[in-house]
Amino acid sequence: MSRTIPRSLLPHRVDHQAAETTPDGTTFGTAIILPARFEQRTKIVYTGEGRSAAASGLVFLPPHVGLPDPDPTVTDPVRVPVEPQVGDRITHRTRRYRVLEVTTLANIDGSAHHHEVWVG
Questions:
Q1: Residue ranges making up the domain that contains 45
Q2: CA-to-CA distance for 106 and 74, rounded, in angstroms?
Q3: Cβ of 14: how many Cβ atoms within 10 Å?
Q4: pLDDT class of 68 with cuts at 50, 70, 90
Q5: Region 5-15 average pLDDT
Q6: Tell me, what CATH number does 62's domain have?
Q7: What are the CA-CA distances from residue 32 to residues 4, 7, 72, 101 (Å)?
Q8: Contacts of range 79-85, beta carbons closer than 8 Å, 24 or more positions apart
Q9: pLDDT by residue (tens digit) across 34-53?
C-alpha cells in the first residue's frame, strides 16, 4: 500500500489554478482549494529555457484530493489527482504566485508521495 504525505503536515490552504494558453494570452482555470504547507523560502530556479528566476516560497501539495461525488448515494469521495505545472497560479492568503518548478517525490513503489512546488 502506497502512502501519501500526512494531512497533519498540510496545515494551510491554497488555491490552485491551471494555466491555459490561448491566442489571446494565458488564462487561468477555476480555482481549486487544496490542503498545503506553505513556507517562505528563497531559491534561484532555472526554467526549461535556461532562464533563472527567484522563487520566494515552497508549497507542499498532496498527489490527490478527495472531492464529493455528485451522486448522493456514493459516500466515498472521488480521488482527483493534483498535477501542478510550471506557469500555473497558486494563491496563498491574498498573495498570488506563479509556479516556477515542480518536483514530485515518490514512494518506493513509484506512486506519488507529494509535490514540492517552488513559486515566485
A1: 7-119
A2: 30
A3: 25
A4: low
A5: 95
A6: 2.40.10
A7: 19, 17, 21, 19
A8: 82/16, 82/34, 82/115, 84/16, 84/115, 84/117, 85/18, 85/19
A9: 999 999 999 999 877 788 99
Residue at 81 is within a domain: yes
Counting residues of the chain whose pLDDT is more than 70, the rounded percentage is 90
Q: Determine, yes or no, domain membership for 2.
A: no
Cell 502512502 maps to which residue? 3
How are beta strands 19-22 and 25-28 bridged, if at all?
Answer: antiparallel
Tally of domains in the chain? 1
Written as one string, the DSSP assignment of the chain is: ------GGG--EEEEEE-EEEETTEEEE---EEEEEEEEEEEEEEE-TTS-EEEEEEEEEE-SEEEE--SSTT--SPEEEE----TT-EEEETTEEEEEEEEEEEE-TTS-EEEEEEEE-
